[in-house]
Amino acid sequence: MKELFFGLSNAVFTYALAFYLITCFQWFSYRVERVIFHFTKPVWHVFFIILPLVLYYTTGHWFWIYFYFAYAPALFLWHKKLDKKLVFTGRIKRFFIILSLALLAQYTLSYALFKNFVNCDATLVAIISLALSDMLERLNFKNFKRAADKKLAELSNLKVILITASYGKTSIKNFLYELLKDEFNCHKTPRSVNTLAGLMKDVNENLTQQTQIYIAEAGARLKGDIKEITDFLNPHIVIVGEIGAQHIEYFKSIENIRATKLEALHSKHLEQAFVHSSTLKSADDKTQIYNAGLKDVSADFDGIKFSLDGEIYTSPLLGKFNAANLAACIKVAKFLGLSDENIKKSLQRLQNVEHRLQKMQAGGKLIIDDSFNGNFVGMSASYELIGTYKGRKVLITPGIVESTQAENENLGKIINEIFDVVMISSPLNAQALLKTIVKPEIIIIKDKTKMQEILAKHTRAGDVILFSNDAPSFM
């Protein structure tokens, strides 16, 4: 009975350890170097990997007291408080099947050699399972890519539009789709799908012989990521949006970010590229600077108005920064043969992308959800918009995630002049923000699960409440 208890406990610990590890890997796109070197809360690794493994190998049977009364409850509470929990995708299910088979194999071997189930190693099983899972997914990746390549080759009349930028990709994609959908059979990548694996899945599952235009966004964390996607899709039209300091910790410099985004221009099917002036690219026969003729931009709570190449355009979209996004869409639409009249009609039905300056009312308060807007240009423009509101102004933000301290300090200066109450929702940039925020009332949110109670206590009817950017609890 004692042997059975220790054997089962070993299996439970293995599953617990693997659960923590695979959750971290899912957050960071299954990149080992990101989980090890770019993990923003390394203390979690200490509590859930390093300390338990040290005790596992040094305390013998006493370890199980620590496991059941400390580690397991702590892991349960940790998971409960996460705002981005493990999603049981096909990959995750396959991992746990491999883990179970590895445990079974180790127990079988232990019994065959030692006639007991105690001589099993949780770390060894977890590492072997992660390695086997990675090998299986790489094999699946090759099969998916082969199928996607074949499908794209068969769609000879398909025109591919690729969108990449430091920020604004999803907005440009959605606005462009709205402009083109009445004239063409269009498909856009769902949600924020922007990786090579996600694009291959989308091609395999959603493109048909009837699809005329495929609008895809491309994201990057490393040099070469955009090149991989470009080599796969070989887009006919490329939009390279604004370049900024997003993900600077991975790229190390703006120059590296710019070079990576411009990898999209190396498509062998390229007909025309529309690039933002921040790319520092010069115009030529195949390249237009889409914001070059953008002037007289104004924005309020009724929408935006701007001039592009001498023509006046209006839209109910909120946010001055959306003028540049629309400039790219208008240029592409005109390149594809749409008339100014049809473009202007389509602009009037546009709505802000979900979680990007979405307007709603609740309890007499005006709530602006801008939680997916995470760059300096977009966030500062949304603050300028909020500045036109006559009532009390409340901000909830973690600052700019995966950017520089200087950008967060500059953001703090703008916040300081506009808002009456500032709620900082993550410790990630709190120090940089607090350097420059001195006028508003400051509230530090330590537990986002209590957000509703905090808002009820610190806001009132007549307030405008802006949710600006969001940082998952692992950031």
Automatic annotation (TrEMBL):
A single GO molecular function term of this UniProt record: UDP-N-acetylmuramoyl-tripeptide-D-alanyl-D-alanine ligase activity
Coiled coil regions in record: none
Membrane-spanning ranges: 12-30, 42-59, 65-82, 94-114
A Pfam family that the UniProt record links to this protein: Mur_ligase_M
Keyword terms, alphabetized: ATP-binding, Ligase, Membrane, Nucleotide-binding, Transmembrane, Transmembrane helix
Domain Mur ligase central stretches: 163-332
The keyword Glycoprotein is assigned to this record: no
EC code: 6.3.2.10
Protein name listed in UniProt: D-alanyl-D-alanine-adding enzyme
Organism: Campylobacter curvus (strain 525.92)
